Amino acid sequence: xxxxxxxxxxxxxxxxxxxxxxxxHEVEKASEADEAVKAAGKEAGALIILSEEFASAxxxxxxxxxxxxxxxxxxxxxxxxxxxEQVARSVGVDLIAKAGRKGRKDE
Length: 107
Description:
This protein is an alpha/beta fold. Helices cover 35% and strands 20% of the residues.
């Protein structure tokens, strides 16, 4: 199966993904991000890199794999929180929170 890489977000956040051969979808509003993700999700084997700013558009991905990328303004920690929720739902325990509470002995 052929894979296709898509990057959705503001131009300054997604242009570096051109070097990876990504199809670029420049957006300025959440509604535009929704449409771009929906269109990218129609392709078989699509992998979508989505700016964290437009994380809500991930719901439009139609079951495709979506990675959230921090924007030029820095990370909003949305990606970590999303992974945390998924792990907790899958395992039944919030492993990420438990790992954060463990102190390192060499400190």
